[in-house]
Amino acid sequence: MSDQPKSRKLRLRSPQRDRVVPIPVRLEDWLPPNHLARLIWSAVCRLDLSGFERDLKIVEGHRGHPAADPRLMVALWIYAFSQGVSNARELDRLCVEHLAYIWLCGGVSVNYHSLSDFRVKHQNDLDELMTQVLALLEEAGLVTYEKIAQDGIRVRASAGAASFRRKPTLEKHLEEARQVVAQLKLQAEERQSSEAETTTFDDDDDGGRSRGQAARERAAKERLARLEAALDEIPSARASKPPKKQDEARVSTTDPEARVMKMADGGYRPAYNIQFAADSNNRVIVGVDVTNIGSDQGQAPPMEEQVEARSGQVPDIWLMDGGFNKHSSIEALSEKEIVVYTPVPSPKDRERDPHQALPKDSEKIAEWRLRMGTEEAKEIYKERASIIEWVNAQARSRHGLHQLRVRGLSKVKSIGLWIAVTHNLLILIKHNDGEVADVSVLPATEQVSPIAEVLEAIA
After folding, report:
1. Within a 10 A sphere around the Cβ of 7, how many other Cβ atoms?
2. Spatial contact of 391 and 385, defined as CB atoms under 8 Å apart
3. In Å, how far are 163, 175, 239, 246, 365 from 242, measured between CA atoms?
4. Is 291 inside any structural domain?
5. Are residues 154 and 296 in the same domain?
6. How far is residue 250's CA from residue 208's CA, in Å, rounded to a whole number?
7. What angle do CA 270, 412, 284 make, to 5 degrees?
8. pTM of this prediction?
9. Is residue 423 part of a domain?
């Protein structure tokens, strides 16, 4: 037997965090040439973002804190959505911890308030940006508008099921909220009158009470506004129910525009119905819409109008699943010479051929029934899933569309537009073979950050 090994002192490379180590101050050296953050920045710099600058007020030679460059904010959110990040607080954290986001910031500080506001503030500009990206894709031959597939994706709303109330309960809570607001207002007036008569008082204590009182007043006013909005939504919620169940209509006090919908797993939860339309060529998203209706019935004509307005072209073929096969929708699309492919519902009489026209069918509906019975139509319809279902899967798995973090139809549509712009821009970047960003056009002060700012960002 060999002797036992003697005690030995290993040579290891252990962390020594009290040492001074060199840190590169040139951000250009932090990312490889073909990093996605570089490519997104390069693409964003080629877009017209003048609409995002419309509300900015601070100009050269005048006082005020300068706003963050819209190119930076757009690039940050596009890169974030490309990585499945949709939370403003999470993006704020990444901007000081993740090299790619630090590189995009280039020494410019951002916070979650500005990031959150920017995400939902520019819906019209985002819509124009999507059209702009689609024009570039069309110019590159990546979208043809010949064959379009549409589908809805129900996404969990930022509201709990327990927040839904019927009209009588909402009216009761609204009256209570009004009383609270009035009481807080009276207390504030009495306190101001008392302070005016007092010659000496504790400044610190008064400041603490004032801040607390202001917070309570703000919370009470916000609750009052939410309850008023919820009551305003009651007629819409009633209209979506059968006549016998309209009195059971309930609205959320958290997100009044959200509705309880049947989800993909069969359960019922507060949600929004986000509609995407995609071109068969490269699966480019060509249309985005949002509704608070759980059904897809009647959603095809508005989407086709949007696609036509963006592109100036009428699609040749429209693919959609059985949830869209409302006769009025099929007729509206067929009137524009669009060939509609959507399944014919199974008849109650199993012996009747569903593809044979019924006496009450219009000419367009009869043509659709007959067409869907052919083998050619069945083969064409098979393409629907590979187009739009893939897009929906990308929206969920890659772009983080699992649960919404914003409230209201308008803000939810902004999220849908961000995802569409991100999705399409990634296709454009891929087509360009990963063209490296050309940052030499930027001023030298933007290419190299001061040491202090870099160290602050890293800390």
Report:
1. 5
2. no
3. 22, 29, 8, 6, 27
4. yes
5. yes
6. 39
7. 115
8. 0.84
9. no
